[in-house]
Model the fold of this input.
Amino acid sequence: MRPEVRIEHRYPTAFGFLCQHGPQALAILHDLIARANDVDGRLVVEASTRGIADRLGFLSKDSVHRRLRQLARAGVIEAVDRDSSSAFGPTTYVVHLEHSGITVVADDGLSA
Done:
């Protein structure tokens, strides 16, 4: 069972992040953060566009794909490994929360 995480927003920095990226990108980022693991002090998560869309339920896979690209262009997420066997397979992302006003703390000690 995954540990419970606390995602905190520090204002006004987090509000600026929300204004810049929008609520869809923020919802996707929350999904990634909630599933991330601490790997050598970095937030690392494996996710697929379809998986995120299925979990969120209110965004299409196309909307998720656009927002993932947006977050990647902004340097908030970084794709580090792509399963080359499938265009629809999961990708490993490193989540960079610096300058976002967002922090995460998990019961297992993960903190970013």
